[in-house]
Amino acid sequence: MLEEWRDVGASEVCVPTPVENPRDPLRETEPELAVPLARTDSSAEARAVFAPLCAEHDLKRCLLRAFSLAEASTQHQPGVRQRALGQLQRFVRIHDRAEHTTVYAALLAQPRTRRLAQVAIEEHHALDAALSDLAEAVAAGAEQEIGERIGRYRDLLTVHLLREENELFPLAYQVLGSERCLRMVRRFRDVRQAAQRLEE
Description:
Number of helices: 6
Order of helices and strands: HHHHHH
Strand content: under 5%
Radius of gyration: 17 Å
Number of strands: 0
Mean pLDDT: 81
Largest sheet: none
CATH architecture: Up-down Bundle
CATH class: Mainly Alpha
CATH superfamily: nmb1532 protein domain like
Structural class: mainly alpha
Shape: elongated
Helix content: over 70%
């Protein structure tokens, strides 16, 4: 069921999972974030344009939740944990590859969006490392470390997705305009589908 990733029409609105005062694990201290995570007053059109990416973000959240549930039931269902982790890793790999070559590439080319795109890319690197650490703990059967690393990955993912949904996408819409963003999102979907076919 989770492997069937449906495309979402541009008319659907992105509604990120609400999180109160998310902690940014990338920072050693907890001063004001370099990029605030509070929701901005972006237009309904901007949220609709980026709805396909936000829907994939929701699938990331669901896959992580499925892995967490599998972790809790692993004693009763051997192999469930490994399959759930594999689904998460595959989805993240395909989504991130498409996002880097389309969305981030376009935003890095714009002075007004470049810094925020760079922050998002740095977060992707941190997420990749955290997911790799989690996979190593699962392979080693290190039960205590698995729980800690799930929490670490969840914290990083929450901050990253909220930053994209509440800051990066609205700014991209403001800078690039509706038509360019629509083309960028369509290109993202094409690249993602091609990457998915390569993994099948």
